[in-house]
DNA sequence: AAGCGTATCT
DNA sequence: GAGATACGCT
């Protein structure tokens, strides 16, 4: 797995990119974006037009970015041909998960890997550069001198904690053991090229903050529900979140309703990534057990669509905040 | 002095 | 909001 990065482009040579997208608007947007980032962009609308461009440009094209449609076999063919004829990395864009799946089947390549392999990482490798400076800018600064101006600046980059990267992070913590986990160990365990210990430290901090938020919210009322209690010998429900959620919901109806409607805390559940379906006041809820710590974290009303609730363990939901000092909760919550 | 945790910055 | 950076402490 590679890290995905955002970076400001300060590369010496111009990297040339061929963009293929039959949506003219998108095509232009992407091409313009790339130009703004100081890449040389060549835009073509159809895959069929791509090949001549490649041949003309020879190996000066460093990357092909193109939109994939499941119906568009030309696109796949093109990809295959390019892979065979030229050694040019191809970055596929697709709005649809299913298209991604098709791609995966066709190429025998993990779509995740492709996605995780950020554009810039690919390009940097192509140009024989490091995606991320080995020494952090911070340490270099500490060393005293401001070398801006004369020397090559380490390219500023920002890693993106994709779901799969975050998952690797969680696995590392799990394997190490939560109490023994420290950035260095997590970093070593993850073993992801381009990922620095500082990256991990930062993420680790956010993750712990997230866990605290989540657990602090469990300032606690006893679960009256026997079904629930029988599964966990010390179950509690935090209504703080619920109250908060309601307030939010009332103030801002319809927005951000993916906030968990309440929180369950149990000392017994340790079921990696498991879901339990429980009954709570007639409403079915899903309980997501935190793979890292020995208690469950969230449950959600199952009516909330899709897998959103599971994302409570995911990178995407990790940072959404609730940093208000929590109020003493309403004990006559409807969970009573 | 490496590396951790927290605060602060972007 | 998400990630990087600064910094004090061990």
UniProtKB/TrEMBL annotation:
Question: Transmembrane segments in this chain: where?
Answer: none
State the Pfam families in the record.
Answer: Myb_DNA-binding, Response_reg
Keyword terms:
Nucleus, Phosphoprotein, Transcription, Transcription regulation, Two-component regulatory system
Which segments constitute the Response regulatory domain? Answer: 16-132
Q: Where is the composition biased (Polar residues)?
A: 314-324
Q: Which domain of life is it from?
A: Eukaryota
InterPro entries under this entry?
ARR-like, CheY-like_superfamily, Homeodomain-like_sf, Myb_dom_plants, SANT/Myb, Sig_transdc_resp-reg_receiver
Provide the residue span(s) of the region labelled Disordered: 312-336
**Which residues carry the post-translational modification 4-aspartylphosphate, per the record?**
67
Q: Which PANTHER family match?
A: RESPONSE REGULATOR 23-RELATED, TWO-COMPONENT RESPONSE REGULATOR
Q: What's the protein name? A: Two-component response regulator ORR21-like
Native source species: Solanum pennellii
């Amino acid at each position: 797995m590679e890290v995905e990065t955002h970076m400001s482009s300060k590369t010496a040579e111009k990297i040339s990119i061929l963009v293929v997208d039959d949506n003219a608007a998108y095509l232009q947007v992407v091409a313009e974006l790339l130009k703004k980032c100081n890449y040389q962009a060549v835009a073509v609308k159809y895959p069929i037009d791509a090949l001549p461009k490649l041949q003309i440009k020879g190996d000066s094209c460093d990357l092909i970015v193109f939109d994939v449609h499941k119906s568009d076999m030309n696109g796949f063919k093109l990809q295959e041909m390019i892979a065979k004829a030229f050694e040019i990395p191809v970055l596929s864009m697709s709005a649809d998960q299913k298209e991604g799946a098709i791609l995966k089947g066709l190429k025998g390549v993990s779509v995740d890997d492709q996605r995780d392999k950020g554009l810039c990482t690919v390009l940097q490798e192509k140009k024989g550069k490091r995606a991320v400076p080995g020494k952090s800018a911070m340490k270099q600064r500490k060393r005293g001198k401001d070398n801006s101006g004369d020397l090559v600046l380490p390219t500023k980059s920002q890693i993106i904690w994709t779901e799969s990267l975050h998952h690797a992070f969680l696995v590392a913590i799990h394997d190490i053991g939560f109490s023994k986990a420290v950035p260095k160990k997590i970093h070593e365990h993850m073993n992801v090229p381009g990922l620095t210990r500082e990256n991990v430290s930062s993420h680790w901090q956010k993750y712990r903050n997230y866990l605290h938020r989540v657990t602090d919210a469990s300032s606690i009322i006893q679960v009256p529900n026997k079904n629930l209690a029988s599964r966990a010998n010390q179950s509690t429900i935090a209504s703080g979140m619920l109250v908060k959620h309601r307030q939010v919901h009332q103030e801002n109806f319809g927005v951000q309703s993916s906030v968990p409607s309440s929180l369950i805390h149990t000392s017994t559940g340790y079921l990696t990534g498991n879901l339990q379906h429980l009954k709570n006041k007639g409403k079915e809820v899903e309980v997501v057990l935190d793979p890292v710590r020995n208690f469950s974290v969230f449950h959600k009303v199952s009516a909330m669509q899709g897998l959103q609730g599971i994302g409570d363990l995911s990178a995407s939901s990790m940072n959404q905040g609730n940093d208000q000092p929590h109020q003493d909760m309403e004990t006559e919550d409807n969970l009573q």
